Amino acid sequence: MRLPSLQGRRLVSALLFAGAALVAGAVIGACTSDEDQQQAQAVEQQTQQDQDQPAAQVSGEPRGNTIQLIQDRGTLLCGVKQTQPLFGNRDEDGNVTGFDIEFCKAIAAAVLKDANAVEYVDASDASTRFELLADGQIDILIRTTTITSSRDMELDVDFAQTTFYTGQGFAVRKDSGIDSTSDMANASICVQTGTTTEQNVADHFTDIGLDYEPTGGLSQDVAAAFFEGRCDVLTADASDLASRIVVRDNADDYKILPQIISKEPLAPGVRDYDSDWKDVVNWVVHGLIRAEEIGLTQANVAAMASNPPNTEVARLLGVPFEGGSVSTLGFEVVDAQFIQRAIAAVGNYGEIYDREIGDAIPRDCTLNALARPLPSEAVDCGPGEGGIMYALPYR
Amino acid sequence: MANMPAAPRERIVLPPHRQRARRPRSVRAREWVRKNLFPSWRGTLLTALAAGVLGAVVVGLIAFVFFGANWEVITHNRWLLFAGGFPREEAWRLWFSIALVFALIGLAYGTWSSLGRRDHLFVLLVGGFVIFLMAHGGAAVWSSIYFLIAVGCMYIGYLLTYRLPRATSSMRTLQVRLVGALLILALPIVLVVLLAGGNVGIRDLDGFVLNLILAPVGIVGGILIGIPLALGRASSLKSIAWTCTAYIEIVRGAPLLGWLFVALFILDDIIGGDLIIRAMVVMAVFTGAYMAEYIRGALQALPRGQYEAGQAVGLSQYQRMRLIIMPQALRISIPPMVGQAISIWKDTTLVTVILPLRELKGNADSAISQFEFTPDRIEAYVFVAVIFWIVAFMMSRVSQRVERAQGVGER
User: Fold this and answer.
1) Chain A residues touching B223 at Cβ < 8 A
2) Alpha helix positions (H), B23-140
3) Number of Cβ atoms within 10 Å of the Cβ of B92
4) Pick from B161, B184, B203: which residue ends a domain?
5) pLDDT tens for residues B211-247?
6) Is A368 in contact with A387 (CB distance < 8 Å)?
7) Alpha-carbon distances of A289 from A389, B99, B140, rounded to whole Å
8) Sheet strands (E) in B277-362
9) Could you read off the pLDDT of B366-385 as tens digits, one per residue?
10) Distance of CA B402 to CAs A60, B104, B275, B344, B408, Å?
């Protein structure tokens, strides 16, 4: 028995009606996203500029002015990872958090005077992250990205000051009897594909003349494979290994070998040939490190700014010292107080580290410690240990 | 059939020489077991083997679900998985939309079908699952209440329409038109409720909400694109036929993955707009090519006589299509179109893989990247799989109802 319901011409006219309704919906949707469209237009203008000046890219003359674009738009498009424990992630409320995210906020505070004026664009996919940057869909890539010469030269990316130093290490089960890579003949090794990690381990085993059996995949997948016993060794950045082991109930069953086979300096990336923008990013990072060196914190920065103890603090915070004049430090694209706002927004480098990483990856005596520990925090490090976080001078 | 609820099943009456005295239930059961499970020693062995495997799976599953798994990764991240970055103070928009859609489902079921015992059981199971998620680990009392209200709306909608007399034709026509119009307007209405005014933009569609918006836009848009394409391909005007054929072959010839790359890196210079709108366009365009082919198949399956009969009674080309051909063709193409709908529903996860957008699976990846939950990835992925299954299963069931109501395969 058939119903006379949605049949026949009613079905057809209904579908036509749906078309009209869909168009109406799309129009309303478009109206609510005026801001997005402005952004898209701004980016479009940017890409238009890029297309207009193909020669400029080749000759290395200044091209697109990202900082102007950001200020016109009013938001910073920060390309971040959303699947990296501690560094770039989302909390239970859907907010993006992590070590890398703090730098997005600091830069937004510096450039836009508002640490929350950031739109976090998901750049979790390792294979498209540089494309997003080159295409103008993000202004900056802060996504545990290693600086390498080939990336710097081949891709449309320039790296700013390193925010986190790590190196590639190996994790094994304690009862595996492996103490260094020389014990890993024919071992199965879990390694993330499509990253510098994979190349490093291949190079290393060529150098020591051993064979191994690689098991590839995404970073969280290879870690899981290792913990499920599907490979003997897990290799990744030592900091990543530490953070993945420490949360496990049986963390004591695993150990990280002291051997480090690569340098992995993780740094923010910006587009090539945009010195003004890169300079600002660079000096914000240096400013946060400098703040830690001289004891400026999120809590005391306002007091320090109203009553600077010396000329250097006054210069860094962009305030006059004892009736003197304010130095702009030569920056034309941002005002003199950009470092002050960054510190007020997220605190100094050490505060960021403690808040986002803390004990999950101990900092003392690693490369990420200050090159010159504060006298009060001096710790005894072993031979060959010690930090290299060293801010360049502001003057 | 469909509008005769609880119609008693006809009992097959056997001819006298095949009638046997019915034996007691226990005897019949014993016989069934012997015949089906232990017919010979080989059969017994197979039964034992199957029972062993099945038992191991069930025991393992129960052990995992109730004892081994740490479901906190889900309960702690309810909001992240559900709506992600959608502003929390605007959550009423989500609940209102859900209540609206549930009420519509109720209205539709009451109008064209009926809820059987299995449907109530399904609602009970899924509802219990959702309430359990919200009750577990931290209070989500209000969310639970909102959800219950939404389920209540469904039953109210059902009772409202189901109780209406179906015999009086004028009332019935009005009801069908009203509910049909509401169904068709549902998607735009939901989009308006979610996005119009206030502190929300299209970019706030996130998590499961993004899947729930992307798939219907892809499906409805796909049908709207598919119908003219199918007709165009069958057109006698060569230029139109070739254009439509080219569209279908080109769009179908590349994977959705590739088209999403186009949305990301090429369409922004051509049509602009937010990435989510571009993703919606790509989903609709892609689905449209498939829908067109299903409809074309249905057009070709119609007997020539249908066209000729239309001509014979003097209908114009347009009238023939609208009154005779398309209603039948759309009815025939329901099963493959639903298959495509389920396929595009699952393909919504691709927006996380290719585009910098976060849907349910992407947010599950974020949940298991939270420092304390990094060991709990299996729980997260099992949860995502179950959620996708529930919706796909519902689509499949609803399509069966539609097929029955439209009399597919019964002509």
Assistant:
1) 15
2) 25-37, 41-62, 72-75, 78-82, 91-112, 117-135
3) 11
4) B203
5) 999 999 999 999 999 999 999 998 889 999 999 999 9
6) yes
7) 7, 51, 42
8) none
9) 999 898 898 888 899 999 99
10) 63, 15, 34, 19, 9
Question: Could A9 and B322 be called an inter-chain contact, meaning their C-beta atoms sit closer than 8 Å?
Answer: yes
Domain chopping of chain A, boundaries:
34-165, 168-262, 284-377
Contact A40 B76 (CB under 8 A): no
Determine what percent of chain B is predicted with pLDDT higher than 90.
51
Domain annotation covers residue B42: no
Has residue B72 been placed in a domain? no
- Chain A residue with the nearest C-alpha to that of B376: A224
Please calculate the CA angle B49-B53-B55 and round it to the nearest 5 degrees: 110
DSSP string of B289-313, one letter each residue: HHHHHHHHHHHHHS-HHHHHHHHHT
B172 with B256, same domain: the answer is no
- Token readout for B205 is 């569609």
Question: Given this structure, which CATH class describes domain A34-165?
Answer: alpha beta
Listed residue (A145, A118, A155, A92) closest to A39, CA to CA: A118
**What token pair was written down for B90?**
């605007």
B residues 244..273 contacting A (CB < 8 A)? 264-265, 268-269, 272-273
Residue indicated by tokens 């009553």:
A307
Counting beta carbons within 10 angstroms of the beta carbon of residue B33, is it exposed (0 to 12), middle (13 to 18) or buried (19 or more)? exposed
Give the SS3 label for residue A329.
Answer: coil
| Domain contains B63 | no
Question: Residue B138 burial (CB < 10 Å; 0-12/13-18/19+)?
Answer: exposed
Tell whether A229 is within 8 A of chain B (Cβ).
no
User: Domain A168-262 adopts which CATH fold?
Assistant: D-Maltodextrin-Binding Protein; domain 2 (3.40.190)
Length of chain A (residues)? 395
